[in-house]
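Following up on my earlier thread - several people asked me to post the actual chain instead of describing it. Fair enough. Here it is, all 298 residues.
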Amino acid sequence: MSKMTRVSLIAVTSVALMLSACQKKAEGQVVAVVNGEEITLSELNAEIGDLNIPASADKTLVRAEVLQRMVERRLMAQAAKDAGLDRDPTYINQERRMKERLLVSLYGKKAFDTVEVPSQAKIDQYIAAHPDMFAERKRYRLDQLMFDIPSDVNRMKELDSAHSMADVIAVLNRWGVQFQRGTGALDSAQVPAETMKRITALPPGEPFIVPNGGKAVVSVITASEPIVLTAEQVRPMAAQAIRNEELNQIGQQRLAEAKAKAKIEYQTGYEPPAGNNAAASVVSEAASNSAEALPKAQ
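Reply from S.P.:
Thanks for posting it. Predicted structure:
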């Protein structure tokens, strides 16, 4: 094949691709075409499904408004690509992270579908074994303050000797650290049982610290009240909790299997701490963003 023939074929192919893009039509399963990019009916339905649309809403109007929003978003995304932002390292890193989280989420959902609904006997056993979640569930009122964790985290050990909120404030003032003070609440069902036991075992007025990202939240229990649940509420909650725990076990097992088969190489100084073999849940993927409440070290 001559060079001229190859060039001609490339030119013809390019023209064919351009014509194909121009010929895309908004019909059938394609509800809109934006500069040659299709928006499908399944995409539109998924977008609507993520919204909390009242049953009484005009579905035709909602569909039109949501589609218009998708068209406008697509236009802005195309403009961002034209500006080269899809090649920006920040975009590339965030895109990879979002894709990984989505895959992990879908992997967890697929696993959840395989977890059987627990029997009534198993539900009853679970309810009896977790009083903090059901029969003895409580809401604790909290006096709280929040501050930025010092760059030298070892300074946090100074708070071990603080046995009241006044003591904590005195330490923070000595550090010259600003803080915000307010009130909060703690539901005993939302905290791991062992952690809840450690919190409630503290002397009255004793602070406990919850790390939350780069912040530290110091809390003191000021009051409590029971949360009364009916049998109709308790059983579905217990069944869901059992399935979540089983799903977490599946996630830990799958992660352990993946690690066992994987070849992972770390740069010196970036290795995980020795003995750090705990497999995080595949479903929660890094345990959401809320840190577990832990009483301060005694």
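Residues 22-87 form one domain. That should answer part of your original question.
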